[in-house]
Amino acid sequence: MSIWEYANPKKFIATTTPVIPWAFGGAGVCILGGLAWGFFLTPEADKFGSSVKIIFVHVPSAMMAINAWAMMLVASLVWLIRRHHVSALAAKAAAPVGLTMTLIALFTGAVWGQPMWGTWWAWDPRLTSFLILGLFYLGYIALWEAIADPDQAADLTSVLCLVGSVFAILSRYAVNFWNQGLHQGATLSMDAEENIADVYWLPLLVCIAGFILLFLALVLMRTGTEIRVRRLRALERQAQRAVA
Amino acid sequence: MTGRTGLRVEGLAVARGGVPVLTGLSFAVAPGEALILRGPNGAGKTTLLRVLAGLAPPFAGRVEAPPESVAFASHADGIKAALTVTENLRFWADLYGRGFDAAILDDFDLRSLRDRPAGTLSAGQSRRLGLARLGVIGRTILLLDEPTVSLDVASVARFADWLRDRHLAAGGIAVIATHVPLGLDSPVLDLGPFRADPRAAAHQGTDAAFL
Amino acid sequence: MKALLLRDLRLAVRAGGGFGLSLAFFLIVIVLIPFGVGPESAILARIGPGILWVAALLATLLSLDRQFALDHEDGALPLIATSPLPLEGVALAKALAHWLTTGLPLTLAAAPLGVLLNLQGPAYGWLVLTLALGTPALSVIGTFGAALTVGLRRGGLLLSLLVLPLYVPTLIFGAEAARRGAEGLAATTPLLMLSGITAGSLALLPFAAGAVLRINLR
After folding, report:
1. From residue A92, how far is each of A138, C11, C213 by CA, in Å?
2. What is the total count of domains within chain B?
3. Using the beta-carbon criterion (under 8 Å), do B207 and A237 form an inter-chain contact?
4. Spatial separation of the C-alpha atoms in residues B168 and B64, rounded to whole Å
5. How many H helices and E strands in chain C?
6. Beta bridge partners of B7
7. Which residues of chain A neighbour C216 with C-beta distances below 8 Å?
8. Which run of H or of E encompasses A38?
9. pLDDT digits (tens, 9 = 90+) for A163-177
10. Is B202–A238 a contact, with Cβ atoms under 8 angstroms apart?
């Protein structure tokens, strides 16, 4: 049994449809539980006050914003190499979700930055990188929308995704070089010496799990929708040809 | 029979927008021969020519032609208004790595116009210039999509003469999609019988995965 | 490739070719800047290198959508595609022609326009150097964008949306090197990065552009 079997649209829908409600349910439980735990059952930080608690939305959304692009990159490569329609449609389906995650990360960052740095927006490398990432998402989505033929659109957006990934990484380094920034370093890596305090660590993990499940549920659902749109188009064309 | 210089098509199917439009095409065109494609609008003439030219991949089957021997010309002229007639032709000759032979100007009755900017030519003159392009690129297999659109009768005859006396006589090949009789005694391929069955077609194209 | 390059250059300088439009745009933007930020020469001198870089970048954007669109509209593109020149070479020739008609004149015009923004002594050299190193990357990246959108309605607008994010690293390193150089700071690192981006783009992006052209010609 090969993983590529799920590349068949019908098989994909049949397999994922029952999973989607569970993913949504799991996401809801994790996010609500994690947020409740984080908001009400953790102490306020010395340095940050209660504003630290926005971390429970900010960090997971920022992680998913980047991971969504990584997923699109993998899906684009799969489409270019193996020509599985589901893969291209999954990349298309993930883009608006990734853009939304980027916007959430930017918004929560601004809300957090206001009391911490005294400003809503600073041209900090991380914030700037996310802004640029948002622009890449916009361009990618716009290209999908502009092309009528779905296979051609899949090909062109896949190439754009590959080239865009290289330039997104370049931008990240360029922005780092350009401004050293206010943002604290990543505090969530497993081996960092100065890690986030344990009291925040566990609820944060729950929230991250919730966001991953939410992303999964949304992408599966949206991919299913895209597949149905393509199916509708195929049926319409079949009907047209039968008449002609 | 056609050897290595001819154009040979075996079991070819071509698709437009991911749906097969023609299937089961097999034919061979030997050097010095032309093939006229007939069929109603939408029959797949342009699609077939683009596949023969290698611009689009075949949906099934094979196209055999010597390397670097084909050229595809759509019914648009592809000439630049800001360049003179000679400059236009010289560009195409250079692009295809050929020397420019001014004799082509006589074949298409362009000698008196040779220094005029192409933008000042009439529609018919532009068409003649567009066709003269095909004479300077030195390709043996010409794939022509409606080459005689907006040509008057005399110019059609002139084009047919060039095709017969210069191109085909020199061992060239032409596959021409046209509604206008060119006066060539070439075989005609009616695409009607090769039209893909709409019911079967749906289950082969890119839509098939979704049905 | 030479034939295509020469033809595009000739077309650009003939009437209606649009050569000089981007230069005029560059000039106008630079003239407008002091109206926006005020005439204080100290401020202008400080923001000058960056402003000149951004204006040059926007000016290169203007002529991009004509690159393949004209050949696509008049039907020349399929006959170019069946020529012995591979589409990668076509993309490179187009990028080169674009740089010679846009990037190079902008680089040369930047120094005299710097006077308007009250640039100081060393700033001129750094500005011209960084633009000379950076504008080829802008042309190649833009050519990729143009190949991506050939044949699309409203392609020009979409082209800007696709290309501008790709321009970010080039702009940052280019403007940063110009600024640091102008202020007498060490500018070697951004200069090397800028050269690296240009070299990498020149080496790799023609292949991406050729691939998307092939897809668009199907």
Report:
1. 12, 39, 21
2. 1
3. yes
4. 19
5. 10, 0
6. B29
7. 152, 156
8. helix A19-40
9. 999 999 999 889 888
10. yes
